[in-house]
Input
Amino acid sequence: MSHSEANRVRIFDTTLRDGEQSPGASMTLEEKLQIASVLENMGVDIIEAGFAIASEGDFECVNKIAQRVKNSTVCSLARAALGDIDRAAEAIKPAASGRIHTFIATSPLHMKFKLQMEPEAVIEAIHKSVSHARNLCEDVEWSAEDATRTEMDFLCRAVEAAIKAGATTINLPDTVGYTTPEEYAAMFRTVIERVPGADKAIFSTHCHNDLGLAVANSLAGIAGGARQVECTINGIGERAGNAAMEEVVMALKTRSDAMPYHTRIKTQEIMRASRLVSTVTGFTVQNNKAIVGANAFAHESGIHQDGMLKNAETYEIMTPESVGVTKSVLTMGKHSGRHAFADKLKDLGYELGDNAFQECFRRFKALGDRKKNIYDEDIIALVDDEVATSANRMQVVSLNTYSSTTGSAFSDVTMMIDGEEKKAVVYGSGPIDAAFNAIKQLIGFEPHLQLFQVHAVTQGTDAQGECTVRLEYEGRTVNGQGAHEDTVTAAARAYVSAVNKLLVKREKTAPAPM
Ligand code: KIV
Ligand code: ZN
Output
């Protein structure tokens, strides 16, 4: 495989922008910072951190990510409006390497009905917006929204205007997931061949998955001359989502014989990123999802298992280790000491302060009393839960539930709310309903429950349950997570974690509610 610069494909991750546009996928600042750090460590070239003009919260996220990230370019989206571009420039100012990404639609349908602009006015807007962005930042990307439904002559004129005005990257999105691989590759070839100065810019793909073709189209775009791929972890995004980064990267790596291109991605970090994005958004990854699904490396049939034992290559085209899938490792038991626990946390990539370490160790010991075998996944779930909830205004102190097949259930919940212990005993149709009712009584308001899901962290009936709860209140939506060996407690912790996020979001936009 040739590793020349000419064959390097830049990975532009838009999980935090297009990915967050999936309904229900809202993320907090802390969560976005955590994801950005994982993306940086895995070698992502450009992180699209948000849409700075969209809200104060979006601005803050882009700005904080720009302050923290050192090894990836940090980018903000902006419409073709000077105010949008100014805000994007301000948000990325602290970045070691920053980019402004400005866009306008170029298809007849979008220009006529959405923008209500004549084509000439769109060309003028491209010139103005890109020139303005270029005066504020060296690195400017311009996107032709709905490029795949744009007339070729007009697309070439628009791209030429953007390059003349100083755009360094030209993105040709398949905004509605409509194109086919042959068509998309041909579009890049034609534009690159026809537009004067095309050799000065990097061309980029941006594919949506409405027909399930986003990854195939992205790869075809590379064959047509693109050297940047815009994608998201787990393929999250508007409607059916965006091209999945893990699939694009592993296709290029595994089939380098057929596609002689390379990326900088450390593929062993893929699984970590996938799990984090899934936990934060509450979007479970389907079992048969390529690369990161729970069954992606499972072999069920006898014939396959027999082949695998003789030579793994019989049924595996890439190793699980190459994408960071590790076998469930039986780590420790209740007799493991403080040192062994500290070493394990280091191996798993955690650095905890003293108080967090003490609390995690206490919970680990308590877990060991109830659960015979403790796996890496148990420790990850426990530590993530503790780190996410320890500084919260509201916490679950204790919970007792009673339920039966013959009558209703009740839950007795004690919470710490702003340093004060409060208790409620409330009925419900089942133990989780009762626990949530008790929490609602204690917090004094009633968020709307949009999603509740549980999955077992490991196998066995003594496994910890990991819960996600999505709450909506006064137009704000948040996801909360909680893990515990008692599923009702995990659910209550997830509910309270979401409530805390609602409070943070509310405090940022209005006086504190309580
Ligand atoms: O899908 C799209 O066209 C976009 C642009 C804003 C790049 O997300
Ligand atoms: Zn998009």
Remarks:
- Residues 309 and 502 are 50 Å apart (CA to CA).
- The chain has 16 helices and 16 strands.
- The chain has four domains: 3-281, 297-326, 338-388, 391-502.
- The longest strand covers residues 394-402.
